[in-house]
């Protein structure tokens, strides 16, 4: 059973792509959890109302959407 060099190289490229995808998924999940946690802690205060925090929710939604777009749909590499 002999392996051709190019077969091994293609195999390594697949492993690296899988590892990159896994790293992106974990990074995006951690960042999204942090941003959502940050936005929800603002509503815990009795002095801050919903309409005070609404711009923060809107900006967090835009940031999360841009992060997902850049991580998964932007193919300019």
The poorly predicted ranges are none
Total beta strands: 0
Shape: elongated
Number of helices: 2
Q: How widely separated are the two ends?
A: 37 Å
On the 0 to 100 scale, the average pLDDT is: 78
Q: Let me know the largest β-sheet.
A: none
Helices and strands: which structural class? mainly alpha
Query: What percentage of residues falls in helices of 4 or more residues?
Result: over 70%
H-E string: HH
If you compute it from the alpha carbons, what radius of gyration comes out, rounded to the nearest whole angstrom?
Answer: 20 Å
Strand content: under 5%
Characterization of this structure:
This protein is 79% helix and 0% strand. The protein has a domain at 25-72. The longest helix is centred in the first third of the chain and has 37 residues, at 5-41. With 77 residues, the chain is mainly α.
Secondary structure blueprint with pairings:
Layout lengths: L4 H37 L8 H24 L4
Could you write a compact summary of the structure shown?
The chain is mainly α and 77 residues long.
Descriptive key words:
77 residues; mainly alpha; 2 helices; 0% strand; elongated
